[in-house]
Amino acid sequence: MKNYYHWSNKIEVAKQSVFKCAGYILRTRIAIQGVDNSLEISENARLLNYDIAIKGSGNSLQIESDCVANGNHVSLTMWDKGD
Prior knowledge:
mainly beta, four-stranded parallel β-sheet, 7 strands
């Protein structure tokens, strides 16, 4: 099966950092690798068609209240380095 989906934005977050998202996040792929990283999605953010991958130990994901996350392509994957 061919993949016809195109990401408008591809973001790779630096190691041991905090990445904050706010506003409209559309057709975006976010990749976080390493140790002790944090992804924070601000209050009232709107995520549409996204892919978030978090790999490593000590990482966290924080989603504030009143966020909307949906679309026809939605993916959140978190795994430890050993997996």
